[in-house]
Amino acid sequence: MTELIRAELIRAEHIGKRFGPVTALRDINLYARKGEILGLIGDNGAGKSTLIKILTGFHRPDEGRLSWNGEPVQLRSVTHARSLGIETVFQDLAMVNDLPVYLNLHLNKELVHKPFPFLRRREMQRRAREALDAIGIDIPSVTALVGQLSGGQRQAIAVARSVTSNAKLLLLDEPLAAMGAKEGGLILRLLRQLKQRGDIAIILIAHNYSQVVDVCDRVNLLQHGEITFDKPCKETSVAELLDLVHAEYRMNHDPGYLTNRTRTAGESLSNGSLRNVPSLEK
Amino acid sequence: MQPASVTTGPPRSSLAPLLALVQIKELSILLVTVAAALYFTATSNGFNGSDNYHTIAQYVAPWAIVATGQVMLLICAEIDLSAGFVFTLAPFVLLLFYKNGAPLFLSLLGALLVSALIGTINGLIRTRLNLPSFITTLGMAFLLQGSALIISNGSPIPAPSAAESSLVVVFGGARWSEFIWALIIVGTMQVVLSATRFGIHTQATGGNPVGAAEAGILTNRVKVINFALTSTLAGFAGLLQGIRVGSFDPTNGGFNTMFFAVASAVIGGTALLGGSGTVVGALLGALLLGIVYDGFNLTGVNANAFNVVLGIAILVAMSLNVYLTVLRKRADSIRRPA
User: Would you tell me which of A73, A234, B107, B198 could form a disulfide with B98, CB atoms 3.0–4.6 Å apart?
Assistant: First the structure.
C-alpha cells in the first residue's frame, strides 16, 4: 500500500514509570498514526503491558508527556481514555466468567432505560449478536456465561468489545495468544479491515513476529523500558526481529557473546538497554 | 465494515438461559427447604399452623435482611463480620437520639445513618489501607460490641411502644411487619443485583477485580457502597427486632446473627470467593435454617445436641446444593457443547 503521510493520533514522549524500587518504563518515545498498525514487540518483562496500561489510562506515568491529536493530554482514568476513543484488549481480557457474553461486551457501558436504572437486556443482546456476527466468530449464544467458552472465543469477544465502540485508538495486548489458527486469522483480517477505514490507529503487541511483519505497518522494539528500534515492516524481516531479541538474550546470558559475534543487528541496541532491569511483569 | 464471514445461529428464545439457570439454582435449595418442611410436618404436630409460621418468620426475617447485605459483599469477594453487632448497636443509637428529644422517625433515620457510616468506615479501611475485610470487620465487631455494652450499661432497655408513636407498628410492631420488610428488602435488592448497572458492577468486581478495574469500573467505590449497604441493613434488622420484642438488648444479634446470615447466603448459592450469588437464594437459605431451627425445637431435640444437629443439617444441605450445582453444570455442558 502506498505510504501516505497520515495524521498522528497519539504520541508518548519520555514516558517513565516506576513501581516502588522497580523501574518498569525508563524513557518511552512512541507514536501512532491514523490508519496504521504499529507492532510492539519485546521480551517478557520489557514493559509492554505497563506501557499499554499507561496509554489506556489505567496507570499514570511518573514522567513524560502524552499528546492526543497533537494536543497535550493527561489520561485521568480508563473511563476518560475511553471517552477520547482509546479502547484496549488486555492480556487478561477483562472478562467476567460469571456474566454472560452480552454483559461482558457491554461491561461498564451497560445500556439502561433512562431515566430508570434498569438494564436494557434485549437491546444489549441484539447488539452483541450483531457485533459478533460482524466479526464472523461463532459464539453459540450471547447469553452463555463467558466461563463456559473456549480461550479463543473469549479473545474474540474481547476484540469485539473494543472494535464495536467507535474506537480511534485500539490497543491489543497479545490478542492472538490464546487463539487457534482459524480464529487468529479472523482477528488479523478484522485488523486489516479496521486499518483500511483509515481513521483508527492500532497498536498490536504480539510474540509471533511473522504475524507482526505480515499485518503491521511499522514495528517498535521495547527493551528494558525503552524503545530501541523503530522501522517500517517493509524494511525489516522476521529474521532481523528475532536476531534483535535473541541478541539481547545472548548478551544477558552468555558473557562471551559480545566479543565473539559479528556486530549486525545488535548494533541498534544502545548501551542503556543492556542494563538488567527487573520488572513487575511476569 | 464488511463482515469477515457471517454466521447464523439457531433462533434464540427470548427467555435468557441465564435467568433460567438462576431459577434452577434456586430451585435446588427450594427443594431442600420443602423437603425439610415435609419432614417436620410428618414428625411434629405443631409444625403446620399460623402461629408456628409466624415463629419461623421471626427467625427468618433478621437473617434474611442481614444476609441480603452479605450476599452483595460476598459477591464482591468481601465479608462483614461486624454486621451482627451493628444489629446490636443500632437500637441504642436510636435511643440516644430519641431520649434527647428527636422524633422517633428522625431517631430511626439517625440510627440508620450511623449504621451506614460504620459500614463506610469498614469499606474505607478495607480499600484504602488494604486490610482484608475479615480482619477489618473482626476488629469493628468487637469495637461495636463494646460500644453497645457501654451505651446500654449492659442491660436491656425498653423500646419505644406503639402508645408513643404509630411508627412502631410499621417498623416491627405489627405481627408480620418484620417479615414483610424482609420480603421487600430481598425483592428490591434482587432487582438491584440483577437488573441495574450497580448490580452488574458488583458481580464484575468480585468475578474479576483486575478486569473490572481495567474496564473502568471503580471497584473500590463499589465495595465501599456494599459495605455501607450491609451495615445499614443489619442496623435496620436490629431496630425491627428490638421494636418487635419491645426491648433493646445488648446481647441480641452479634456473631450468632452474622453467622446465620452468612450461612443463609452460602446455602442460598452465593460463592464465598465472589462473583456469583442471588439475594432470593439467601432468603431461601434463611427459610431453610429457620424451618430446621424451629422444627428441632418442636420435635424436642436436646438443647445440648441442638447445634450438633444444626451443623450436620447445614453441611448436608450445602453438600446437596454443591452436588446439584455440579450436576447442573454437567447437564448444561451437554446441552451446549463449547
Answer: B107
Of B17, B197, B214, the CB nearest to A143: B17
Instruction: Judge whether B138 lies within some domain.
Output: yes
In this predicted structure, which of A76-80, A185-189, A276-280, B105-109 has the lowest mean pLDDT?
A276-280
Is residue B25's pLDDT more than 80?
no
pLDDT at A270 over 50: no
* DSSP category for residue A99: S
- Residues of chain A in contact with residue B17, where contact means CB-CB under 8 angstroms, are 141, 143-144
| Domains of chain A, residue spans | 8-95+167-274
Asked if A96's CB is within 8 angstroms of B9's CB, the reply is: no
HSE of A95 in the Cβ direction (CA atoms, 13 Å)?
A: 26
CA distance A172 to A254: 33
Q: How many CB atoms lie within 10 A of CB A175?
A: 26
- Say whether residue B335 is in contact with chain A using an 8 A CB cutoff: no
Q: Using one digit for the tens of pLDDT, what is the confidence trace for A202-254?
A: 999 988 888 888 889 999 999 888 888 898 988 888 888 888 877 766 666 66
DSSP secondary structure of B102-125? --HHHHHHHHHHHHHHHHHHHHHH
Task: Compare A186 and A19 and report the one with higher pLDDT.
Answer: A19
Higher pLDDT, A187 or B129: B129
Phi-psi sector, A180: left (phi>0), alpha (psi -120 to 50), beta: beta
For A14, the 3-state DSSP assignment is: strand
Residue B81: give its domain's CATH number. 1.10.3470
Asked if A44 has any chain B CB less than 8 Å from its own CB, the reply is: no
- Does residue B326 fall inside a structural domain? no
- A93, pLDDT greater than 90: no
Q: Which residues of B touch A122 (CB under 8 A)?
A: 14
Instruction: Give the count of domains, chain B.
Output: 1
Which tens digit of pLDDT belongs to each residue from B180-215? 999 999 999 999 999 999 999 999 999 999 889 888
Is residue B31 in a domain? no
What ipTM was assigned to the predicted interfaces of this complex?
Answer: 0.78
Residue B16 has pLDDT above 80, yes or no: no
Q: In this complex, is the C-beta atom of B154 within 8 Å of any C-beta atom belonging to chain A?
A: no
Phi and psi at residue A71, to the nearest 5° = -100, 140
Per the structure, the complete domain to which residue B246 belongs is given by: 47-320
All cell numbers assigned to B108: 430511626
The dotted CATH code for A8-95+167-274 is 3.40.50.300
* Residues in chain A closer than 8 A to B210 (CB atoms): 92, 94
Residue A149 touches chain B, beta carbons under 8 Å:
yes
pLDDT for the residue numbered B8: 35
Is residue B176, in this structure, part of any structural domain at all?
Answer: yes
Rounded Cα–Cα distance for residues A212 and A153 (Å): 22
DSSP string, A110-177: --B-TTS-BB-HHHHHHHHHHHHHHHT---S-TTSBGGGS-HHHHHHHHHHHHHTT--SEEEEESTTT
